[in-house]
User: Fold this.
Amino acid sequence: MRYYPIHLDIQNRKCLVVGGGGVGTRKVKTLLECGARVTVVSMALSRELRELAASGDIDLEQRSYRSEDLNGMFLVIGATNDMTLNRQISYDAEQLNTLCNIADRPEVCNFILPSIVRRDDLVITVSTSGKSPAMAKKLRKALENQYGEEYGKLLRLMGAIRKKLLRQAHEPEAHKPLFEQLINSDLIGMIQKDEFEKIDSLLLDVLGEGYAYKKLMRI
Assistant:
């Protein structure tokens, strides 16, 4: 099986999680981080899910799953240890052409979830196409050590610079050598060490006046 890599925009989209244990809770939290409108259906619920429901962050149905729960959903995640139920969820999703992931059961999914390293808007994903979650976890931990929080700050800075350049009617193709020059410098090391004067000096050399780090980052 070859999977088609994709990053989904689920902002304000309705998503269903069936299962309220530890796995379901982790799935819910990730969906919320990406702006989804989450409904959970489960008889058993973790303390965290109860708190999220009490605060209005999720909709909660404390009962058994019904096929009609999928109506209007953009995607569904099955996070139960009942394989018969998981297969029913998968079948129902297929009838509605709904995106469906069943935790740890790639054979009944139409998409799988990678291991994730997140540094603000920088998202690095690792997938073994369902063959070895343990290897994906090991690689994720190695990437977490390699790419620290400074990479998220670098990406924010690049985004702010790009936005400012575009406002000045620069052609996007003209940006490429400028960004390559910044990325190939020691900018990441300067950000890691909070060397703001050096950063501003580099930005001045490459971009000219009006590109101050703290102003761009709104610090």
Observations:
- The longest strand covers residues 14-18.
